[in-house]
Amino acid sequence: MRHRPIRPAFADRGAPNVALEAFAAKKPVVASAVGGVPEVVEEGVSGCLVPPARPDLLADAILKMLSDWERMQAMGRAGYERVKKDFTFEAQTEKLEGIYRKVIANRLEVRRLRRQSAA
């Protein structure tokens, strides 16, 4: 039997590494919509999201996923493409550099405004 990542959780902090690892292996994900999971798992595209603490909906989502092999493959491919595009080292580095650029630009603007108001 092939492994299918299923990720029930009540709370989550940070990036959902299990989902990213599943996508890297071209597997769809069934997960609770908590923490950073909805930012990674696109409902109906790369997996299925259910509300936390709803085992009935989690079971339904799992059964629905397992009943449609083509859909599972398509979702796994979509997750894989998303990981390649948005979660590589290079992509994460670019995002972090962008954050640093914004912080530095804001800091410089604050200094400029302080100098103007002091003059």
**CATH fold naming of the largest domain:** Rossmann fold
Query: What is the strand tally?
Result: 3
Strand content: 5-15%
Largest sheet: 3 strands, parallel
Radius of gyration from the CA trace?
A: 20 Å
Reported CATH architecture of the largest domain: 3-Layer(aba) Sandwich
Mean pLDDT value: 88
Residue stretches low in confidence (pLDDT < 50, at least 5 long) are none
SSE string, helices as H and strands as E: EHEHEHHH
Helix/strand class: mainly alpha
Number of domains: 2
Number of H- or I-type helical stretches: 5
CATH C-level label of the largest domain: Alpha Beta
Key structural traits:
119 residues, mainly alpha, Rossmann fold, 2 domains, three-stranded parallel beta sheet, 5 helices, 3 strands, 61% helix
Walk me through this protein's architecture.
- This protein has helices spanning 17-24, 37-40, 55-66, 69-86, 89-118; strands at residues 6-7, 29-32, 47-50.
- The chain is mainly alpha-helical and 119 residues long.
- The chain folds into two domains: 1-86, Rossmann fold (3-Layer(aba) Sandwich), CATH 3.40.50.2000; 88-119.
- The chain has a three-stranded parallel sheet with strand order 1-2-3, with helices on both faces.
- Helix 1 (17-24) links the parallel strand 1 and strand 2 (29-32).
- Helix 1 packs across helix 4.
- The protein is elongated.
- The relative contact order is 0.14.
